[in-house]
Write a sequence for this structure.
C-alpha cells in the first residue's frame, strides 16, 4: 500500500507531466503555425519536467507529447516521440547531476542541438523526404537545390534549428526553475506541494 507521501509524489508527477505536455503542444503548435524559422518551443514542457522531476518523468512527458500531438494535429509527430524521450532523459540526467542554472542550461541546449537531430534527421529523411512542415524546410530546400544529399541536408538543417531552439528553451526553463520552491527540485521532499 502506497504511503501518503508516495501518493502525493505520484500525483505531482502526473500533474506536472500533464502540464508539460500541454505547454509543449500549445507552444509548438503556435510557433509551427507562425512558421518561425529556427525555433520550435515544442520541448519546453519536457525540459521543465525533466529538470525538476528527473529523466523518467521527462521521457514520459516528451513521448506522450508527440503521440498526443500526432493524434490531434498531424500523425507526422508520432515517429519523433523517440527524439522527445531522449530529450527528457538527457535533461533529467544532467539536472540530477548538476544544478540546472544558466551555464548548465546552455551546455544542455548544445548537447540537445546535436542529439535531437542525430535521432530525428534519419526519421525525417526516410519517412518524409526531410520535409516536415517546419520553419526550417526552406533551409532544407536550399541545401537540396545546391546538390547536397538528403540525410546530410536534413541533419544540417535540424542542427541549425535545434541549436537556437534548444538553447533558448533550456535557458527559459532555467530561469523558471530559479523561481520554483525548493521542494519542486529533484531529490527534494514533496511535502507542501
Amino acid at each position: 500500500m502506497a504511503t501518503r507521501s508516495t501518493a502525493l509524489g505520484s500525483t505531482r508527477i502526473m500533474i506536472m507531466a500533464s502540464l508539460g505536455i500541454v505547454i509543449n503542444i500549445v507552444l509548438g503548435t503556435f510557433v509551427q503555425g507562425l512558421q518561425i524559422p529556427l525555433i520550435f518551443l515544442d520541448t519546453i514542457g519536457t525540459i521543465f519536467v525533466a529538470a525538476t522531476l528527473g529523466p523518467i518523468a521527462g521521457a514520459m512527458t516528451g513521448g506522450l507529447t508527440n503521440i498526443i500531438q500526432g493524434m490531434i494535429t498531424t500523425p507526422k509527430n508520432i515517429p519523433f516521440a523517440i527524439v522527445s524521450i531522449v530529450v527528457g532523459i538527457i535533461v533529467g540526467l544532467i539536472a540530477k547531476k548538476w544544478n540546472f542554472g544558466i551555464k548548465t542550461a546552455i551546455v544542455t541546449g548544445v548537447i540537445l542541438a546535436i542529439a535531437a537531430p542525430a535521432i530525428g534527421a534519419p526519421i525525417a529523411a526516410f519517412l518524409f523526404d526531410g520535409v516536415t512542415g517546419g520553419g526550417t524546410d526552406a533551409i532544407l530546400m536550399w541545401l537540396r537545390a545546391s546538390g547536397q544529399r538528403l540525410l546530410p541536408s536534413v541533419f544540417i538543417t535540424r542542427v541549425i534549428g535545434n541549436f537556437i531552439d534548444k538553447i533558448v528553451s533550456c535557458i527559459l526553463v532555467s530561469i523558471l526553475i530559479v523561481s520554483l520552491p525548493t521542494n519542486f527540485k529533484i531529490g527534494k521532499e514533496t511535502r507542501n506541494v
Summary: The radius of gyration is 17 Å. The helical segments are 4-34, 44-53, 55-72, 81-97, 102-128, 137-145, 150-178. Residues 188-193 have pLDDT under 50 and may be disordered.
